[in-house]
Write a structure and sequence with these properties.
TIM Barrel; alpha/beta; Urease, subunit C, domain 1; 23% strand; 5-stranded parallel sheet; 5-stranded mixed sheet
Length: 286
C-alpha cells in the first residue's frame, strides 16, 4: 500500500509539472539522492537555481538540455576538512574550481583551530565578490585564544575567559557552524580541557558542533579521543574527530581500539563522528 501511495504521489507531481518550463533539464542520469542505496535512472529539471522536478521522461521544455547518459547525478559533496580560508577570499582562487571539478559544492573552513575569528567580516568578504562553492565556517579556538591571550602559555584570567566567551557567542550568532580546535598547535594546545568545555558550552547554546584535531594522534590517541568526547558530553554538543588516525608505525592498529571506544559512546547515545583520509601520509605546518 505504501509503495502504491508513493507511485500515485509521484504521478501527481509529474502530472502537475506537465507543460512547465525549466532553465535546465538533465536527462537519462543515474541519480543518487543521498538517501537511497540504489540509484534510479531519470531526469532532473532546474529553474532559478532550484530543482523543481525529478522523474522519468520529464515533460519540461528547457533552455538547456543535457543528456547525462552514463553519468552519475548526485547532491554536491561536502569537504568537511578544508584549509582554504585565505584562498576563498583571494581573487585568483575564490572560484574554488579544483573542488568543483571533484564534485564538491560546499567546503568547511576554520578547521584545526586556525582561521578568521570575526565570522561576520569573513562571510562579508566572501559574499562581496562571491565564491565558487558554499562556505561553512567553524570558529577556530586557536585563533580565538590568540586574539585574547596572544601566544602566552597560561590559563586565562577570569576577564580573558569572559572575553573569549563573548567572542565565541558573537561568532556563533554571526553564522559559525561550530568550533574547531588544533590541540597540537600553538596557542590552541595551551588550553586545558576545562577552558575548552567553557567555550564549547557557548557553541552548544547555538546548536553548533565541536570538531577537533585532537591533542595526540600517536601513543596518546586513546586519551585524546576520550578528551574530545568528554568535552562533547560536558558541553552537550556533537563531537567530530578530524583526520582520525594513529600516527607512527609503532601505533598502527591503535585506531581500531579507538573506534571501539567511539562505538561504545555512540551506543550510549552520544553523537561522535570522525573523518579519515585514505592514504598513509600526513601534511602539517610547524
Amino acid at each position: 500500500m505504501m509503495m502504491l501511495r508513493s507511485a500515485i504521489l509521484l504521478l501527481i507531481i509529474v502530472s502537475q509539472c506537465d507543460g512547465q518550463s525549466a532553465d535546465t533539464l538533465l536527462t537519462n542520469a543515474l541519480i543518487y539522492d543521498g538517501v537511497a542505496i540504489e540509484p534510479v535512472k531519470g531526469d532532473v529539471a532546474i529553474k532559478d537555481g532550484k530543482i523543481i522536478a525529478i522523474g522519468e521522461s520529464l515533460p519540461h521544455a528547457a533552455k538547456l538540455e543535457i543528456d547525462c547518459t552514463g553519468k552519475v547525478l548526485c547532491p554536491g559533496f561536502i569537504d568537511l576538512h578544508n584549509h582554504s580560508d585565505r584562498q576563498i577570499i583571494s581573487g585568483a582562487t575564490r572560484a574554488n574550481v579544483n573542488y568543483l571539478l571533484q564534485g564538491c559544492t560546499t567546503v568547511v573552513t576554520g578547521n584545526c583551530g586556525s582561521g578568521p575569528v570575526d565570522v561576520a567580516k569573513y562571510y562579508k568578504q566572501i559574499d562581496s565578490a562571491g565564491a565558487g562553492t558554499n562556505i561553512a565556517h567553524l570558529l577556530p579556538q586557536g585563533g580565538l585564544r590568540l586574539e585574547v591571550l596572544g601566544s602566552e602559555r597560561r590559563k586565562p584570567t577570569a576577564a580573558e575567559l569572559t572575553k573569549m566567551l563573548e567572542l565565541a557567542n558573537k561568532a556563533m550568532h554571526d553564522g559559525a557552524w561550530g568550533m574547531s580546535t588544533g590541540l597540537i598547535y600553538v596557542p590552541s594546545s595551551y588550553a586545558d580541557t576545562e577552558e575548552l568545555v567553557a567555550i564549547a558550552k557557548v557553541v552548544s547554546k547555538h546548536h553548533g558542533i565541536y570538531a577537533s584535531h585532537i591533542r595526540g594522534e600517536g601513543g596518546g590517541l586513546l586519551d585524546s579521543v576520550q578528551e574530545a568526547m568528554d568535552i562533547g558530553k560536558e558541553a552537550n554538543l556533537p563531537v567530530h574527530i578530524s583526520h582520525f588516525k594513529s600516527s607512527g608505525q609503532s601505533n598502527w592498529g591503535l585506531v581500531r581500539v579507538a573506534v571501539k571506544v567511539i562505538e561504545e559512546a555512540r551506543k550510549k547515545g552520544q553523537i561522535v563522528t570522525a573523518d579519515q583520509y585514505p592514504y598513509r601520509a600526513s601534511s602539517t605546518s610547524l
